[in-house]
Structure formats: C-alpha cells, structure tokens
Amino acid sequence: MISLLRQLYPLNRHLVGNDNEKALQMIKMELGDLTIHKYPTGMQCWTWRIPEKWEITSSYIECENGQRFGEFEKHPLHVVTYSLPVDKTVLREELDLHLHTNEKQPDAIPYVTKYYERDWGFCLAKKDIDQLSGKNFKVFIDAMHVPGELLVGEYTIQGESDQIVIVVTNICHPAQVNDSISGVVTAVDLIKILKKGSLHYTYKFLFLPETIGSVAWMSQNESLIPRIYCGLFFEMLGNDNDHLLQHSFEGNTKIDKIALHVLGQKTENFRATEFRKGPASDEMIFDGPGINKPMINLSRFPYPEYHTSMDSPEIINEENLKESRDILCDIILILDRDRIPVPKFKGPVFLSGYGMWIHWEENRCKNSTIPVNEDNAYLRNIALDYIMILINGYRSIFEIYNALKEKSNFPVELDFVYNFMGRIRQL
Amino acid sequence: MISLLRQLYPLNRHLVGNDNEKALQMIKMELGDLTIHKYPTGMQCWTWRIPEKWEITSSYIECENGQRFGEFEKHPLHVVTYSLPVDKTVLREELDLHLHTNEKQPDAIPYVTKYYERDWGFCLAKKDIDQLSGKNFKVFIDAMHVPGELLVGEYTIQGESDQIVIVVTNICHPAQVNDSISGVVTAVDLIKILKKGSLHYTYKFLFLPETIGSVAWMSQNESLIPRIYCGLFFEMLGNDNDHLLQHSFEGNTKIDKIALHVLGQKTENFRATEFRKGPASDEMIFDGPGINKPMINLSRFPYPEYHTSMDSPEIINEENLKESRDILCDIILILDRDRIPVPKFKGPVFLSGYGMWIHWEENRCKNSTIPVNEDNAYLRNIALDYIMILINGYRSIFEIYNALKEKSNFPVELDFVYNFMGRIRQL
Amino acid sequence: MISLLRQLYPLNRHLVGNDNEKALQMIKMELGDLTIHKYPTGMQCWTWRIPEKWEITSSYIECENGQRFGEFEKHPLHVVTYSLPVDKTVLREELDLHLHTNEKQPDAIPYVTKYYERDWGFCLAKKDIDQLSGKNFKVFIDAMHVPGELLVGEYTIQGESDQIVIVVTNICHPAQVNDSISGVVTAVDLIKILKKGSLHYTYKFLFLPETIGSVAWMSQNESLIPRIYCGLFFEMLGNDNDHLLQHSFEGNTKIDKIALHVLGQKTENFRATEFRKGPASDEMIFDGPGINKPMINLSRFPYPEYHTSMDSPEIINEENLKESRDILCDIILILDRDRIPVPKFKGPVFLSGYGMWIHWEENRCKNSTIPVNEDNAYLRNIALDYIMILINGYRSIFEIYNALKEKSNFPVELDFVYNFMGRIRQL
Fold it and tell me: CA of B116, closest CA in chain C: separation in Å?
C-alpha cells in the first residue's frame, strides 16, 4: 500500500484539475481497470453546479528586501485552493486579510480552500509570517479558472445479486496523505482481496473529490438508488489513533451493528459517534436527503497534523493501514454472507440424536462435536434453544446472533451460530 | 382583563342559574358576539342528565341569643351550592351534620357543593363556628330547584381549515375569582388577539360550567368529534405560583410537546404532571372515553385560597394573567403555523452556493447570512445536515425541531429551523 | 396430595417402561378418568424417534472380597437409566470410566441418564466408592432394550371456548419425588378444583416423560396448535424455597404478567428468570420452534437434593404444595375470567348519578358504594377516570389493570377494576 501512497500524495488533487486525472490513472494502473466518469464545468447536479477547473503554476509574496514566501513551487498548500490570480503590490494591512496560518502548529502550512468565494489567499506557517518585513508586498499568484471536467473513478465487483454496496474514498486534499490517500490505497487493497472470491452483493468502489464528486455521480445515476443496500466511507486510517466509527443516520442498521461487532472483536479500543459528528464527509450524499441509504464512516480521526503540510508519509504506519483494511474486509464479508435461514424443522431439534447436544450439568461437552468453551457450557446449551426459536424465517444469521446478545448477552461467537446453522441445514 | 374579572366574579355562578346567564351576557358584551346554547333540565346527555335550576335568595342560622350566621346575603358561599331549602329548628347534633368548615383556613368560608345528593347545608369559617352557642338553632334556607336551562357560550374563530382546536374555560365557582374567572378573562383576551390574524385551524372557545357543561355541549355536537384536532383547558392563572402543565392522556402528543417547549422558553420554572393529576377538569370529556382528543390543562395550581371565600381579587396579579396569556398564545401560534414541508430537492442542498453554509472549522459564519451563535457553529453546521434529512414529507417543522432535540440535543432554536425552512423553500 | 405422592414416587419411571404405565394408572384411578396415548418405539416424531423400552431387574458390583455395591434392588438410581446390560469382570481402571458420583453430596446416589449414548454405568454415593477394594470387579446389570410404547396421559376439562390452555407435568425421574411427582400431584389437585366450576378456556393437562413425551404428543396433535393460547409447566413445588417463575420466550405475555401479579400478591418473596434459565423443561416444545405459544414454568428450584437419591418424601412440605397449587389456581382463574369489556357509554360515566363517585377532596367515599381504602381516595378517583378511557374495545380487564400499574402505579387492586367493570356494564 505504501508505494502507491507515495506516488499519489504529492499531487495537487482538489475538485477539478489535471492532477486529479493523474491520480485516477495511477489507481487504474494499479487495479488494471477503472471506469472514469467525466462531468463538465457548469453541469447542474441537483442543486449543485460542477465548478471550473483550477490550475496554478507559480506564486510568491515578495518583501521589500526581496525575500520570498508562499511559493507554490515549494509546497502546493502555500496557495488557498481555488484562489483567484493576483499580481500587485499591497500594504501589510491588505495582505493580512488574505493570509492564513495555524497558531497551534507554528511549523505547518495550513490547508485552506475557497471553492465558492472568489477570493485570493496565501497559507503560511506561523514562523514564516513572523519573518514578513517591510511595508509593501508584491503578491503574485499565477492561477486560472477555466472550463474542465470533474472526474470520478468507479470500480465494480459484480456479485450474484444486483443489490449494491457503495464504498467511497476521496482523492482530494492536495499534498496530504492520511487525508485521504490512506483511504484510497486501503480501497485498492480491498478490491484486490474481494475480487478473488465470489460475492453476494455487487460492490461499487468510488474514487472521487469530497462531496461534489458524490453529488455528481449519484445525481447522474439516480436509477441505481433503489438498488443501493448500504455503504461504507473511510479515510484517515494510517495515523496512530484508535478507530472512530461514525454511525449512519438511523444509527442502528445492520451495517452499523456489524461494524460495532467487528471493531469489538478485532480491536482493543475504538470509539463510536453519531452521524456527521466524526469526520463528516460523503455519507451526507448517500445517507442524505432523497437517497437515505445507511452509510458508516470509518477513520482514526482526529490527529494533530490534520489539514496541514505535516500530513505527510512520516505519520503513516503501514500496520495501521493493514489493521483497518482487515476490519473493513471483515465487515464486508459478514454483511455479504449474511442470509436468512428458513426453518425446516418443527419442535426443538433432537440435538442428542445428532451429536449436537451440549451437556449443561457436568459442564462438559457430552458426545457432542460442537466445540465449546468449557466454562460456558450451561449458557451455550441454552443459547442453542434460543437460536432454534430465533430462526423464524425473517431473521438473518447476524440478526440471530445479535438477538442473542441483546436478549440476554449469551457468551457465544458469531461462528458458533454459523456452525450450528450449517449443521441443522441438513435436517 | 382586571375590569371584566371584577364584574364577573361576585356572581353566584354554578350549574344552572340566573347568574350564569348574566355572566355569559357580560362576556358577549366584551367580545361583541357569543353563541349561547341552552340545554333544558332533565335532558339526557350521554349517561348524564341536565340538573334543575337552583335559585337562592336568603339564608341564616339563628342561635338562641338571636345571633345570625351563614347569611347568604353576606356571602354566597355560606350555603352549600344546590342545597335543599330548610326552615326548622334543630339541635346542635343535627346542625353539625350540615355544617362545613375548613380547619386549615379558619377565616375562610369553604366552598361546598351537593349537586346530586339532595341535602341541605351551611359553610362557615372556623371562627364563626366557634361562636355558635346554645342548644337550639333556627336554620333557614330559601332555595328552590326548578326547571331551567344549562347555558354554554361558544365563540368560533374560523380558520382556513375545518379542523377544530377546542379551548375551554369554566364560568362556575360562585364568588370565586382565580377559580375560574381568571381563565375566562384570559380566554377573552386570547380571542381578541387571535381573531386579528389569519389562522389555519378553526378555534372554538367554550365558556361553560365544569364537566356537565362540556358533557352537554359535546354530546349535542357529536358530529364535530372527527374534526377536533386537540384542545386546551386553563384556569387559576392569576395567583403567584409557577405554571403547572397537566398533560393529555397520551402525554406526548404534539400539543404536549409544544406546551413543554413554550414553557421551557418563556418561564424560569414550571411543573408538569400526568393527566388528571393536576386540577382535573373538562379534559375528562374531550380527552375522555369515545372522544379521545389530546387536551392539555394549564394552571398555577395549587394556591392556599383554593375553594374558599378568600379566592378573591386580592390574590390576582395581572402580570401573571398576562404571562399566562402570552404563553397560551405562543402555544396556539406554534401549533397553528406548524406545517409539513415537502422536500423538493434531492441530495444535500448546495449550501455554499446559496450563502447558507455555516463554517465549522473556524467557528464562525463564513459568507453566510444565517445568524449563528458563534460558539455553536460546529453543531449548527451539523444540525443543517440533520434538518435536510429530517424533511421527509411526513414530519412537521416542530417535529423536525423536536427530533433534533431528541436525537442529539442540538443547540438550535425553533426559529433557526423556521428560518432555514423559509430559505430552502425557494430551491 | 401426600398419599398419591407416596404411591407414585418409588416407581422406576423414565422414558418407556412398565412403571410409567403403573404411574399413569394410579393417576387415572385418582382422577376417575385419563386418556392414555401410546407411541411405539421407533416412531418418527418431528426430528425425534421414540426410544426403546428399558427394563431392569437386578445389578451389582462385586469386589474380590464378595462385598456388593450398586444393587438395583436396593435403589433404582444405582444403575444409569437406559444403561446397557453387562456381565463381566473388569479392572478398576475400566470400572472407573463407568462410575458416577456426586462429590458435593457424599451420602447421596446421583441420578444419571444415558438415553442416547449406549453405554453401561453405575451410580454410587461417594462413601460407597471409598469402600470399593481389590483389583478385579464383577459388574452385572440385567437390563434389556426392547420395543415398547411411550405413554402420555391427557386429561381435558372442556370449557366454553375451543381455545386450549396446556398444563404440563412430568412423570419421569425414577424414585425421586420433588422432581417431579410434586408437580403431578399438584396437577391432580388442580384438576379436581377446576372441573367443579365452569371455565372459559379448554384445559389439557398432560402427564408425560420430559421432552420426548411433549415432542411425541404435540407432533401427533399438530392440528391443535392454532387453538393453543398459552401454557403452564410446573414441578419441584414441595421443597422449602421461594417460587421461581421462568418466563415464556417473549417474556411479557399475558400469562407472564398474570403470574407476576399473583406471585406478588400471594407470596412474600419470589424470583423470576428468563426463558430456559430456570429448570428448563417441556416449555421448549410448546413455546419452541414452530409452535411458539407462551409457556411459563413455576418451581421452587433449586434445592440441594436435586437429582439424587435424597430427593425423597422427607424434603416435601405439604404446605408448600398447597401454596403452589393455590397460586397456580389463581393464575388460571384470572386468565380464564379475563375479558375485553366493550364500552357502551360515550363521555365520562356520570359516576355521581350512579353512586360510584369517589370524593377526592375530603379523602372519603361520599355517597359511594365502591369500597375504598381511605388513604388512597384521591388516586382511586383518578384511577376511575383512567379506567373509563382504557376501556377501548381491545384491552382486557387484566390489561386495563396492568396499564394502570404501568402508566402510573395506581394503588388499586384487580378486584377494584373488576368491581367497577361489573357496575358500569349495566349502563
């Protein structure tokens, strides 16, 4: 994952620009295939409009002593993203209205965007601002707003069902890596793993600039809405922090519960928060007005380097990326394999007769081939009774497992339920 | 309000009597109009019967020494309301069976009724009872039970909808003022305010004797039941006490929630109690068997002078009446203006494009014309996302506001929701 | 109850055997009538099969010194129920694999079954095991597995409705008395009491061996399933312990609530537990997969002599049996008499007019013939209002009573509700 991440991160990826295309081509190369959708500047997408393409070549603030700051060539974050061009000499008072810095991170260049405000601006580390001297400053930004095309990359893994699970990551945030190239490379790895097996749902992975990318794609694919089952968004997965699960709007849908289950099993600690109260992102489109499909958002937010030039490869730990990828893979596979078992038997199943009875009294497994944790034999014995009743023709296996937890916190694993379900299927 | 109150309170207002008609004529004079319904004695109203008219001219208890007590001419409460006539000499033992007093308020004449018990009786202050002397007492009550008509005053403000909001106050309780003339004058003021504007619902204000008045009117207007949406009852609003909200039977209907909201906004303190656990009154008809329309009951109950001769103009504070009137007016107007917005947009609204975006990061309103409390910009930003989703075609604006509170206690005002709703209506 | 109990308990009652028939004949004698169903060995009942008949005449373990232990003639529990026959000499190591004891009760012979495992075995008190000496042991069990018939006794009390309440007790557990002959004799007494009166539901009392007996009967009477309303199971009612109510699977059905109500009224203390977490038994069939009729399970579980030779008449207290019988009788009668009152009146009932009004102010019953607890007059007055509203055409009397408790914990008894209901029926 790290090598793709190192290729992608330095690009000046934002809403519409040449580097966005470069990024998608790199992803396509890695995956072998990728459909790239193009939405032209000015195109109406619901209440939104596709913005102009923004290109920048050079910038500086020159003091009277000739010292230069805010050079784009040195770091893309030195210019406010979508800044207007400028070429004039200004007094310090005027300059200050166009300067952005981050007091808490004096060595870092902050990340500022003015997508819809038509203003010019520079971003400087606090330590650079302290070096600005003199009365007059030459300010120069060689940028242009021209017609272009917003690009969205789509990779589909066709499953046996036409129901779609949407997986979204962001390609924007210029010269930053955890936000959100860490999500992109995790998605690429997930695709490689998932396409090897056979899947029930159809998975659509989307690589796009935040918000407007999802608005563009979804508004031009409204016919897919009825087929979307749920969604996952993820980003900021490489830094050292526990996972943060941001729930769907409803908050207690199956994808929410599966995510809670996997995080509970696979991590020491994790945090969970309500819809939009974590790193709010594209879930607002897919789980938003008129679409309303539950979408969770997984990250390791927050981290101190967020939205600054310090969000660089040094803060990425590959082990974190792998752990997050494995968690996402588990969530998807539990979701994908979940089925509603149809009860064929009437009355309690003759467990003793089929070698499935767990002896409760002697706290051991008597003539049983179901592996049991010795200490919990009594509760596992009862859990089988509950499972037999919970198989009612409308509960899925995960929902049965969840009902065991919610009803009485039975100490059984999801595999225990799967194992039993597999054995009684033959009766 | 005070001058109407001073006119109305001295009357011997009870179930059926001449003073009830006088009271309704005074209200009609004040309002310019009032429909007066008449229900004759003996008329069957559901399981009830309209009682006889009761008139009294004079009464006394005369001791052997010629001293007189319990003179009706001195105070109407001296005679048990609906007392039988009496004219005989009795021993103290017999007299005691017909004497009523209030040990806790030794200077006050208590208020006692025997509507359906066919007995005679006097009500005396404890200090008067202590002065009764001798063995024999002449007891005299010149009262009569004759056929008459129970009167109900109805004032209708026609709204654009035929759905009805019922507003009920009581005209009974002889020579008492807080209970419940304070409610009558508040209703009169509300009518004057509300009829100036244009309203959605149709409002029916009822001025009637407690319980039997509502039973009579509702039983003779059964065809209106399907059109009744909800109701408000109020009384005892002039004394110095916090408001007491008595909930409807269901307890969590829209009128309950709006009342809680307004009381929370407009008062320092208030109390709330379950159905019938405050000053139980006419809600038992409208929110009762076979009708079942939610009716709240607002008062400042209890107060020490309740149901005695000390419930007089001295305990009425006009500021209290005005505060209660304003609260009732707010409740009605929020209810009246509440509408279900129909979402016209799909996807999240392009807030930045319409100058409605609240910037969360810098904790300030960036390029936005929505007024915000600076400290809460982050949560207000998220609240807009939630609102956009909560507009789903079946939630009203107040319900959206309430869902924001219940889901996550967002620090936004009802006006914030209204303001946003007004702005996106044009999209 | 004690004399029937003394007759029944010594029998070697298990799944299929001659003593099961003797037991059912004794019950039939006591009741005057009993239908005995017969299900032959090998018969398929859902996923189960009727086991073979097991008969045993003699057994012993003989030490080298001629001393004998484990003699069936001395106590039926000395041989594992359904043990294979054996007749050979074994070393101590092999013997130990077939010996069962209870370390916690060193003087007691434990109760062990091997219904479906095809093994031989002895059960000895710990103190006997300590006396086994020598190297070689002669082991002898004269038992046989032959075709037979599983027997189920059914006693029906026909009510006016075809809806069925199932009452189940177990006839198995050889030579033990609390488990579960105490349940059998309680059921016999209940039948004698209930058949005297006229009942709404039809009651089917089943006397059967645990689990397989219910599986056999229910699988051969599937047409009755739609007519079953709910069920009661009980056992272990003679020992000194509080009652334990094991709830139905749903846990909050009417029979659950009635049982909680009666136990709350009639006992100082009782315990309640979830489905299958008490003495799990035949509720797993009637409240189990495909049947799903709520069945409660009442016992005084646990007790130290459980599943040992010490479960003998000495631990039975007849007063306990009578108390349990009375509780079960109350549960059944409240269930049986519960009806949905149909409201005939509209508006609140004219309580004063019918002598039913409870005066709240003076804390006494004024002109009322409804007996009231003086202290609670205020809340009882309000309770009548709530009852009038709760009579809505779909709530039963017990449900109205329960709603009064759940809504606001009104201090009224079930009889108060019944009394009021009887009086307003005439209006």
Answer: 7
Pairing of strands C149-157, C202-208: antiparallel
* DSSP H helices in B145-253: 181-194, 212-219
Query: Rounded to whole angstroms, how far apart are CA atoms C107 and B139?
Result: 89
- Give the pLDDT confidence of B256-280 residue by residue, as tens digits: 999 999 999 999 999 999 999 999 9
The answer to whether the CB of B186 falls within 8 A of the CB of B1 is yes
Contact between A346 and C291 using a beta-carbon 8 Å cutoff: yes
- Taking the C-alpha atoms of residue A93 and residue C329, their distance in angstroms, rounded to an integer, is 92
| Residue from C345, C349, C350 whose CB has the most chain B CBs within 10 Å, to mutate | C350
Backbone angles phi, psi at A242, to 5 degrees: -65, 165
**Cα(A12)–Cα(A10) distance, rounded to whole angstroms?**
7
Tell me if B46 and C347 make a contact (CB, 8 A cut-off): yes
State the Cα–Cα distance between residues A135 and C133, nearest whole angstrom. Answer: 111
DSSP string, B106-158: TTSPBP-B-TTT----EE--HHHHTT--SSEEEEEEEEEEE--EEEEEEEEE-
Interface touch B382/A285, C-beta < 8 Å:
no
How far is A179 from A111, CA to CA, in rounded Å?
A: 11
Task: Give how far Cα C395 sits from Cα of C226, C339, C426, Å.
Answer: 22, 8, 19
β-strands A243-246, A270-273: how paired?
Answer: parallel
Q: How far apart are CA B256 and CA B295, in angstroms?
A: 8
What pLDDT score does C360 carry? 60
Give chain B's length.
427
Q: Dump pLDDT digits (tens) for B318-361.
A: 999 999 999 999 999 999 999 999 888 999 999 988 888 877 65
- Number of helices and strands (H, E) in chain B? 12, 16
Residues shown for chain A = 427
Residues 6+ apart with CB under 8 A from C340: C393, C394, C395, C396, C397
How confident is the model over C240-258, as pLDDT tens digits? 999 999 999 999 999 999 9
Tokens representing B128? 């008067």
Write down the pLDDT at residue B318: 97
In terms of CA atoms, which chain A residue is nearest residue B388? A289
ipTM score for this prediction: 0.90
- CA dist list (Å): B393 to B29, B42, B311, B400: 45, 50, 50, 11
B372 band by pLDDT with thresholds 50, 70 and 90: very low
Query: In the 8-state DSSP scheme, what is residue A364?
Result: B
Q: Which among B276, B283, B284, B295 is the top mutation candidate for probing chain C, defined by the most C β-carbons within 10 Å of its own β-carbon?
A: B276
Q: Using CA atoms, how far apart are residues A44 and C150, in angstroms rounded to an integer?
A: 78
Measured CA distances, A296 to A41, A184, A283, A331, B86 (Å): 30, 16, 7, 11, 82
C-alpha to C-alpha distance for A71 and A88, rounded to whole angstroms: 16
Q: pLDDT tens for residues B60-102?
A: 999 999 999 999 999 999 999 999 999 999 999 999 999 999 9
Q: How far is CA B213 from CA B204, B294, C346, in A?
A: 14, 19, 15
Give ∠ CA C134-C137-C143 in degrees, rounded to 5.
155
Q: How is chain B split among helix, strand and coil, in percent rounded to 5?
A: 35, 20, 45
Closest Cα of chain B to C198: distance in Å? 33
Least confident of B49-53, B98-102, B299-303, C379-383: C379-383
